[in-house]
Amino acid sequence: MSQELLEALLAGDAPVFHPNTGQEVASGEEIILSPSASAGLEAPRFCQLCGRRMVVQVRPDGWDARCSRHGEVDSVYLGRR
C-alpha cells in the first residue's frame, strides 16, 4: 500500500484539499470549521492529496485514517496522542 499521505504529512507539505472538509484549498472559498476542528482536535476525514473521504478509526489514544489511493496515517506518527 502507498505511504504517500504519511510522507506528505511528515514532510509538512501544504494540503491540496482541506483534511476536515475536502474542499480544494486553492479555490479561495472560506472554509468554516467546527471549534474542535479549528483547534486541531479532530481526525482528518478527507485525504489532503486527492480529497477522497477516508476511513477513520478514532481510539481513546488517538486515531488512524486510510485513503484508498494514498495509504494510511496514524496520529502516533504525527505526535498527536
UniProtKB/TrEMBL annotation:
InterPro entries reported for this sequence: BsaP_C
Record's keyword terms, sorted: Biotin biosynthesis, Iron, Metal-binding
Top-level taxon in the UniProt lineage: Bacteria
Cofactor: iron-sulfur cluster
Keyword Membrane applies: no
Domain (Biotin synthase auxiliary protein C-terminal): residue spans on this chain: 54-79
UniProt KW Oxidoreductase keyword: no
Function of the protein: Required for the activity of the biotin synthase BioB.
Similarity annotation: Belongs to the BsaP family.
Protein name per its UniProtKB record: Biotin synthase auxiliary protein
